[in-house]
Amino acid sequence: MQGNRETFIIGIDEAGRGPLAGPVVVAGVKIKPGHARRVLFGIRDSKKLSPAQREAWYRVLTHHPAIEWAVARVSPMVIDRINISAAGNLGARRVYSRLSLERDSRLSLESVLVDAGLTLPSSVRYKAIIKGDEKIPAVSAASIIAKVTRDRLMVRTHKKFPLYRFDLHKGYGTVLHRRLLKQHGFSPIHRASFSVR
């Protein structure tokens, strides 16, 4: 019966659209609206938090019993093959599928909210929100999980390819990264389709 159903919201966002190297990481969180107001109170877009603040929120988000979360990574090779927008959307579909409620008729979705720039299949009812990572707490939470997951991955990648200092710039096109690219050429995790000028 509809009245006995538990309702949830899902927020989805990505990290790593612009870097010259590494994957794009998409994250999603699923939470009841009432829990979202309490658990996510004061949360902000990952870009407006310091690394220490992001790590602190990440620990809260990934260990809180009221939150279910999922991440999907799409590799640089796939990004080069299908383009960055399609890669982000592929990650969003994977995350949505992992958090989907379709297999449990006792659960229903109040809303699926994604940061603008991501799309889900037409069979999914969702809203793309411009600056959703700033306006919607569930999307802010997803942005933090995506960013911390990707940053940690790039720090681990630095150990494999230390010449590129991925631990410092996380694959973004900084002056240092571009200089190291000129010195050493592309690594296997660089996006060949991205301009490095």
UniProtKB/TrEMBL annotation:
A divalent metal cation binds at D13, E14, D115. GO terms for biological process: DNA replication, removal of RNA primer; mismatch repair. Keywords: Cytoplasm, Endonuclease, Hydrolase, Manganese, Metal-binding, Nuclease. PROSITE patterns: RNASE_H_2. InterPro entries: RNase_HII, RNase_HII/HIII, RNase_HII/HIII_dom, RNaseH-like_sf, RNaseH_sf. GO terms for cellular component: cytoplasm; ribonuclease H2 complex. Its cofactor is Mg(2+); Mn(2+). It is found in: Cytoplasm. One of its GO terms (molecular function) is RNA binding. It comes from the Bacteria. This is Ribonuclease HII. It comes from Candidatus Sungbacteria bacterium RIFCSPHIGHO2_02_FULL_53_17.
